[in-house]
Amino acid sequence: MIEIKGIDFYLPAQIELNDIEDKLTAKIGIYKKHIARENEFASDLAIAAANKLFENYNVNREDIDFLLYCTQSPDYFLPSTACVLQQKLKLSTNIGALDINLGCSGYVYGLSLAKGLIESGLARNVLFITGDTYSKFINNQDRSVKPLFGDGATATLLSKGEQNYGLKSFVFGTDGNGANNLIVPAGGLRNLISKENLIEEADSYGNIRSKSNLYMNGPEVFNFTLKEVPNSIHMLLDKEGLTLEDYDFFIFHQANEYMLEYLRKKLKIAKEKFSIQFSDCGNTVSSTIPIALKREVDQGNINKGDRIMLVGFGVGYSWAACSLIWS
User: Containing H/E element for 161?
Assistant: First the structure.
């Protein structure tokens, strides 16, 4: 089966604290975030994460034959940032490289692509990087998103491994009806940056943003999550002929504590089996699941042979779930 051979992550040095006296801080469970500096971008974080992976797991760069990069903070419209990363990471020119434009579901989707590449024989060793700097889209006066999102990047190496360990089943979901509920309205070709799109306006809650800033309809995103995440989990369980009790650990997209606790209680998952790993870094979009997975392994909460469920969900709407046996 296809195994995760190593994971590492990088968080930028600049730290931003949430107000501990604010009731919202306690509700979301996020007390500090790492924020990229003005001249620091998602690809810089991605390079740092990959270099940590190479060093800490003694990875030979020449063995990498495919690079996947999941980001919604690309350096350019074109070329693909994955091509830029290939050169900066000094990887072989005989590799495939492409970007994946997905947010909070992106890690699970990327794992499925890496699995397919290796199982089909098109690649042997896939370097899968996630990286985002949502802070660059956020208006500092928008409390609906400002306390939630931090910046970060992760790097995962996937290869063939032992027969009984590694990635197993996947399920996916997409509903573009929710596209406008988590969006940066201006900046793409459909709605270019203009003077009008830089005008800041206050919403009915006093949050200030322009059309070039990130907008999130929190209640609608919450409702979507409560509907589709349990559905996708039950689809995965049916696909594998298992129950929740057969799993040793669960890592959901680390959105915020209020949402995750609501889901955990709704699904009746034991607290000791459920990952909460964001109080010091916030919601890092496609990087939340691999950061949590790395930390849980390092802390001894996940061991060889454990059956783990990963669930990503968010912008798109897009969602996915998968199971793996940790090696």
Answer: none
* Identified catalytic residue from 139, 253, 256, 322: 253
Active-site residue flag, 283 = yes
* Count of other CB atoms within 10 angstroms of residue 204: 5
The length of the chain in residues reads: 327
Scan for tokens 């607290």, then name that residue: 271
pLDDT in tens, 139-161: 999 999 999 999 999 999 999 98
Calculate what percentage of the chain has a pLDDT beyond 90: 99
Q: Which of 41, 40, 67, 39 is nearest to 53 (CA)?
A: 67
For residue 34, give the H/E element and its range: strand 32-34
Place of tokens 């802390």: 299
Q: What domains lie within the chain, and their CATH numbers?
A: 2-164 (3.40.47.10), 168-325 (3.40.47.10)
Is the predicted pLDDT of residue 164 greater than 90, yes or no? Answer: no
Of the residues 207, 213, 283, 322, which is catalytic? Answer: 283
259-264 — which CB contacts under 8 Å span 24+ positions?
259/222, 259/225, 262/226, 263/225, 263/226, 263/229, 263/230
Mean pLDDT of 96-116: 98
pLDDT at 38: 97
Residue 163: pLDDT over 90: no
Q: 104, 181, 207, 322: which one is catalytic?
A: 104
Q: What is the mean pLDDT of the chain?
A: 97
Q: Which two tokens stand for residue 65?
A: 């034959």
Residues facing 320 on adjacent strands: 172, 312
| Confidence label for 184 from pLDDT (cuts 50, 70 and 90) | very high
**Type and span of the H or E element at 268:** none
Tell me if 34 sits within 8 A of 14, measured CB to CB.
Answer: yes
3-state secondary structure 88-144: HCCCCCCCEEEEECCCCCHHHHHHHHHHHHHHCCCCCEEEEEEEECHHHHCCCCCCC
